[in-house]
Amino acid sequence: MNRSDLQQLADDRVLDAEALLATGRWSAAYYLAGYSVECALKACIAKRTKEFDFPDRDFARDVFTHDLTNLLRHAGLKDRLLSDSAINGAVGPGLSSNWLIVKDWSEQARYRRATEADARRLALAVTDPAEGVLPWIKLDW
To answer: Which of 29, 47, 50, 111 is the most buried (most CB within 10 A)?
Structure first.
């Protein structure tokens, strides 16, 4: 799987989440909204890898994860999140609040029931055009 595949997966999973929200499938919508962020962060990581370089073992092990905070760090976006959150946070709830919602997602969500409120809250935190996590990640993918 390459960077382009991961970008397409991120976009597809957001569309899937929106379709599921429209039909009241809260748990699946919640799961796929979070999964879109995982794919987007992995696209950023793929952008940073060098063709033909043998990957460092620790790096390879660390990026084969679903942990969004860990992926954010390996994508090289942690410092940018802090600085952009400080800027956006002055305007409204902003990117920082949205990241706090998104970072709690995990792949274990596929085994849990999500409420409508949880699903809508995560989907908005992911997709908000002005301060959503996914549009923000896309600036660097």
So the answer is: 29
